[in-house]
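subagent[fold] <- orchestrator: predict structure for attached chain, return tokens only, no commentary.
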Amino acid sequence: MRTRMGLGTYRCPDVRRAAAMAARCGADWLDTAPNYSAGHAEAALAPVLARHSRVRVSTKVGFIAEADRAAAVAAGVLTQAEAAEGHSLKPEYLCWQIARSCRRLGRMPDLVFLHNPEHHCLPEHVNELLYTAFTVLEEACADGQLRAYGVATWSGFSSGLFDIPTLLGAAFRAGGADHRLRAVQLPLSIVRLAPIAQALEGSGVLADARAAGLAVFASAPLHGGQVPELFTPELIDLIAPGSSPAQAALAVVGSAPGVRRVLISTGSQEHWHQAVTALDGPVLSRDQLQRITDVLGT
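subagent[fold] -> orchestrator:
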């Protein structure tokens, strides 16, 4: 299965405009969170989702938008002190936020990611934290509030706090053999190549996710726009001769074993088409990826 592009809305200055552009250009996945765009990203996506019913959407639970904190306190799901921390996986808050996201999006999310569960989490607490949160997400699936769930992390895998077997163990405890854990999201780029190097050896998060049938969403493939600045003509020739730095960077991420979707944040139709062209191009071979990781390191 070829890697598909999705619109990530974290860095979009105009979420509604970017989503409308992506949908017109054939995008079939939008990724967001309640705290993106100062708390307005989900509502901005609602009219686009209403016009494009084929487009699927993922959102997240965990971070608390500053604009939502008073409402969460008023609803009794967080204390003032908890809301001020800006992140919570408290079951009452997760339930409240899932329902709020459904209303803002105007429909059921196709996927809800547990957002950075590593936030203020000690290693000895991670298993119970994941189990408790997954229990809430399993119940939301059973109640028809969402179809499936996953984990979106920045450093949970790279720090060793958890791995795919840990997530699967918590999901099995929470939902049994028919649990609804379906995906993981993590940063992947030429400056974060360790997961690709591990996958080439048959180990690590990408290999484990693939073996478990979990979809991998690659976030920050251009590392916040910094990656193209790191490219030399020699590096482009090594990866994808004749391409732009951004296209070469995306070709690496899109060719990584197990990656199902690459999320980019852009409001430019030109940039979107260039990115799609990169993913639609030839898949880099295992040998090519090995040479790239050997040259760049991890």
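orchestrator: received. Logging for downstream: The domain at 4-296 is CATH 3.20.20.100 (TIM Barrel). The radius of gyration is 19 Å.
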